[in-house]
Amino acid sequence: MSVTVRWYNEDKQALVLAFSTPWDWQQFALVDDELEYGFLSVKHTVDLLIDLRQAGPMPMDMFDLLADAYADATPNLGRYIFLGADAAFKQQMETAESYYQVYGGYLEYIFVETMAAAHQAIGQLNREK
């Protein structure tokens, strides 16, 4: 499958949502329940590590989906950690964030280039909370 979900570690500090080209929304829908269950299965804060290193171009409506489906529905969502995002994705994310803020929303996210940097970010967030 080209869209997968798994726990980052045994402590369940983060869920990893990984995309691999080619993928489609139907494949994403198959793992959406797994994501929701993952957040609901623990009481502590959980980051969402989105691995884009093999994703290919992401459609603009991806940002609406992330904001609507997880930021509002999962009270224990820590932050989005985007691994391997390209420049176009980063620009789209900034645009989506501006749009979301107009309606009173807030997205906490960071961009990282390596899994080591993602590991450090996950550890940092959980030390802060």
Question: What would you say this structure looks like, in words?
Answer:
A 5-stranded mixed β-sheet has the order 1-2-3-4-5, sandwiched between helices. It contains 4 helices and 5 strands. The radius of gyration is 14 Å and the shape is globular. The model has no long low-confidence stretch (mean pLDDT 83). The protein starts with a strand and ends with a helix. 22% of the residues are buried. It is of the alpha/beta class. The protein has helices at 25-40, 61-71, 87-102, 115-128, and strands at 3-7, 14-20, 46-54, 77-83, 109-112. It has a single domain (3-128), classed as Transcription Regulator spoIIAA (2-Layer Sandwich), CATH 3.30.750.24.
